[in-house]
Write a structure and sequence with these properties.
- It is a single chain.
- The protein has three helices and seven strands.
- It is α/β, with parallel strands linked by helices.
- It has a single domain, classed as Cytidine Deaminase, domain 2, CATH 3.40.140.
- Strand 5 and strand 6 form a beta hairpin.
- The longest helix is centred in the first third of the chain and has 14 residues.
- The mean pLDDT is about 95.
Length: about 140
Amino acid sequence: MAVWLKTADYVALVHHARGIFPKVACGLLGGKIDQGEKKVLGIWYINNKDASGAHFAIDIKEQFAAVKEMRDRGWQQLGNWHSHPLQSAIPSDKDKEQAFDANASYFILSLAGGEPVLCSYQVAPDKTVTKEDLCIVPDF
């Protein structure tokens, strides 16, 4: 399944993650599934309760508020995202362990090296990881 993200949202995501570097940034992805493709229509920036550069914990109150806002807009939660400040954009063992929804998209934004790298994955119940086609475009 392809995942579509607007360029402006990608740029904002990178800007936010760089703004709290070297801590892990995290949040939720909201939008719609249209003809078998996920369209990210909104990104929520959620407080990392762990305030760590190595792991994250999404603030549950902020998560509930974000999901309510998605539903009010007629959207659904498509997944979540977090940054890897100093690691590649590949799910860590901890990332896989904490992935509970096989239908969710898990965005990982690497800030290691020169240019940021954003990848999207799905994680099966047996913790097998599948990379999704992530299409970053001006508009859709």
